[in-house]
Recover the amino acids of this structure.
């Protein structure tokens, strides 16, 4: 995994992010189970808070409501936060159902 992921999408940081508070156990090839605290999610990826023993390009598999198991690549790490990009495209209707499940409080949801 030293070379890192060869990602086709270069800058998706402008994608709408939805704040969440979701703790999940991810699967990592080398570390096994890794505990992740997802604090925001977009149709392209998610951000976690907390220290990770991962480097750019490494992969984790997590399970999200409505999406099921999905693989993501670590894109950046800074100051106790890390950003991951989903490996596959998430359909809009699946994404919106996931947001509804992760954000039961409608006031936290972005307008649609």
């Amino acid at each position: 995994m030293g070379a890192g992921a060869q990602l086709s999408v270069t800058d998706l940081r402008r994608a709408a992010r939805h704040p969440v508070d979701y703790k999940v156990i991810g699967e990592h090839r080398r570390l096994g189970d890794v505990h992740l605290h997802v604090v925001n999610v977009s149709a392209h990826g998610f951000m976690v808070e907390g220290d990770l023993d991962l480097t750019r390009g490494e992969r984790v598999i997590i399970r999200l409501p409505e999406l099921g198991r999905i693989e993501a690549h670590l894109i950046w790490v800074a100051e106790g936060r890390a950003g991951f990009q989903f490996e596959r495209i998430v359909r809009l209707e699946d994404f919106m159902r996931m947001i509804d499940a992760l954000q039961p409080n409608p006031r936290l949801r972005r307008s649609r």
